[in-house]
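User: Design a sequence. Structure:
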């Protein structure tokens, strides 16, 4: 078998444009930023949604878990389709569906209707994220792609700062439906930008990408690659901890610490500042240390977060600062792990970047879905489940960074 991807039937397309790092980072930030917009705008809205629709903790958490599950599963569809027809058609269709689903969720009359529309939101959002990661590999080699991804995720961090702040203000003045409706406006605006300004980036079309036989062979080939497994595991563990914060922080800050929704949104946004700091460190470390070296150094922040979370779990009367300091440390490490992990997972697959992106995203989303189901049952009116869950995710992230990624993350060889 050739050393390249299983792409014997790949058809040539016009050469992909050489986008400037700044413009490519802007495009990636907007596309991947749809994920924190979709989750973080909802954080201050969850308690209000529960009260308005008279729903219990488990079904309200399902509005997040269903989003994540659909987000992961749909990537397995969008990824091969994007390898076959290109990135732009998938992006435009996905963003249109996202705007429609946001409107449906904002108008829903029951919590289960919200769950259904949020699932469609997640499926549509995955088109943007899977294509964004694939575009990095379309345009750049892995280390350069990691640099551009870190720059993009700095911009994503700015969106993540604004989202809970905006969500808190919208919920306070207009209710939870306004926060969900705002997601649709954002999705429509990004879709218009893509339609007007962003060219196709795929170098090749793969007519066989959606055929069962070649697809299964490429999936098997990708999953067997040790570098892919290492980077996908890192992203899954690191995002798993972040998801506990996304799904649980509203209930901890508002329900346990009794903050107002607008104040909780402001507090949540500070994590994004730490995340931005992590991406800036990542951009500084990659040229000197490489992707795996940057992750190994960033894992020290994650380990410190783990220790702080264990201490938080034993605090019966925590302050806001006691909750947030471990989160700031975790977000700092996450800002290093994610750019490297997302570039690393697609790096070995230049001709099947869509599928590699989809598989990595599916693994991450499946882990987050399981965490969400556990969290809906574990939250008990204290910070203990929240803190211990995050400590466990942090410990797993450190273990992966210092073992699998150190061994297999570099050099990134085309598979």
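Assistant: Done.
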């Amino acid at each position: 078998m050739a050393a390249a991807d299983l792409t014997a039937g790949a058809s040539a397309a016009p050469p992909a444009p050489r986008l400037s790092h700044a413009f490519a980072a802007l495009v990636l930030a907007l596309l991947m930023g749809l994920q924190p917009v979709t989750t973080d705008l909802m954080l201050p809205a969850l308690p209000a949604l529960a009260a308005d629709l008279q729903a219990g903790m488990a079904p309200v958490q399902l509005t997040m878990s269903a989003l994540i599950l659909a987000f992961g599963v749909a990537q397995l569809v969008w990824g091969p389709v994007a390898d076959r027809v290109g990135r732009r058609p998938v992006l435009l269709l996905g963003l249109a569906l996202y705007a429609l689903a946001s409107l449906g969720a904002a108008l829903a009359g029951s919590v289960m209707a919200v769950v259904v529309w949020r699932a469609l939101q997640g499926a549509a959002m995955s088109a943007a994220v899977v294509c964004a990661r694939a575009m990095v590999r379309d345009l750049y080699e892995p280390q350069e792609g990691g640099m551009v991804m870190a720059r993009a995720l700095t911009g994503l961090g700015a969106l993540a700062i604004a989202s809970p702040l905006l969500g808190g203000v919208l919920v306070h003045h207009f209710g939870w439906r306004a926060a969900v409706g705002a997601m649709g406006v954002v999705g429509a605006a990004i879709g218009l930008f893509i339609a007007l300004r962003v060219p196709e980036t795929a170098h090749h079309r793969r007519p066989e990408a959606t055929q069962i036989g070649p697809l299964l062979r490429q999936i098997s080939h990708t999953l067997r690659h040790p570098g892919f497994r290492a980077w996908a595991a890192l992203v899954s563990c690191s995002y798993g901890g972040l998801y506990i914060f996304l799904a649980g922080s509203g209930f901890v800050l508002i329900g346990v610490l009794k903050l107002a929704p607008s104040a909780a949104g402001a507090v949540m946004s500070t994590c994004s500042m730490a995340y931005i700091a992590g991406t800036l460190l990542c951009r500084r470390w990659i040229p000197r240390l490489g992707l795996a070296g940057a992750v190994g150094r960033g894992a020290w922040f994650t380990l410190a977060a783990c220790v702080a979370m264990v201490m938080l779990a034993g605090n019966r009367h925590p302050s806001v600062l006691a909750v947030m300091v471990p989160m700031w440390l975790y977000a700092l490490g996450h800002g290093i792990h994610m750019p490297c992990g997302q570039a690393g997972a697609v790096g070995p697959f230049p001709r099947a970047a869509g599928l590699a992106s989809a598989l990595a995203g599916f693994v991450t989303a499946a882990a987050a879905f399981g965490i969400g189901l556990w969290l809906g049952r574990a939250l008990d009116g204290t910070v203990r489940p929240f803190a211990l869950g995050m400590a466990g995710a942090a410990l797993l992230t450190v273990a992966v960074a210092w073992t699998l990624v150190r061994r297999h993350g570099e050099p990134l060889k085309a598979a």
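The radius of gyration is 20 Å. The domain at 18-200+213-408 is CATH 1.20.1250.20 (Growth Hormone; Chain: A;).
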